[in-house]
Design brief:
3-stranded antiparallel sheet; single chain; globular; 3 strands; mainly alpha
Amino acid sequence: MEQEAIGAEDAALVRRYLDHVRVEKRLAERTVTLYTGDLQRLGQLASKAGLDLRQVHNAHIRRWVAQMHSAGRSGRGIALILSGWRGFYVWLGRQALIDHNPVQDVRAPKASKPLPKALGVDESIQLASHVQAGDPPALAARDACVTELLYGCGLRIAELVGLDVAAGPQAGGWIDANEGEAHVLGKGSKRRSVPVGRAALSALAAWLDQRAAWAGEDPALFIGAQGQRLTPQHIRVRLKRRSLLAGLSTPVHPHMLRHSFASHVLQSSGDLRAVQELLGHASIGTTQVYTRLDFQHLAQVYDAAHPRAQSVRRPADPAAAGQAGEPSTVAPKQPKVKPG
């Protein structure tokens, strides 16, 4: 289907806004790219309706949301699109180019909240301990260190690739091996420090010994054979390969290790606030999803270990358990004992 072209005036407004979020708000380039696509879609919808972007009203936005939902777009995806549109119209209002925000009070269809995918403890250890036979020593040491830091510190992939070898005013992040701390630059350019365990520090030392063979002028902690900072995509590919070679049943991506870190710390400590700080979440509500994972883990333990859970959920022998397979609630007869 041929797409509607955006008018020159609308295209100029979109370019000005994108320059604003890139330069003044300093949003990440990936976010700017997403905004570009979303605003391109908005311009095409407006053009198809015979409107300029400044003529769009609330009813138009609601209609387009309904169309996207009918076409199968998820509630979460629509919410992200609306967020980009809303910011654009807020900016137009501040420029005195519109007198109302057509996205105001428009909400995406309610989306289900699937549980984040996390590995079990045994699977996490299996992945971290895997030795990649056949890889050059430097490559094997680097991938092992990447895995240990993602799982051992709960880092986001952007935080990991932003790490530099040494601390400094220009460093996005670094690891203080003496103190056992990773200093990272998280979302919203917020810095935080997280503990680094012995296994990760050991893997870091092994990688630094090998890194010298590849080192160029790039200060990045994690580099490729050409001496350039690794990209997130490169790490995703290497981690997926490692998980398959390690014999895991599902391919692993970096954020799955962050989920695993959070879930395992919460299971052991029960301290939701501590997990929030470790992950760098601005809101405790974001962290609370791991309480659902924690409860799921507890329910599995209960099902496997508690005799009454087993009798209700998995009766071993319907005939022995009672009529129609129901667990028996009748106590066995006790032998009669004559007094005296």
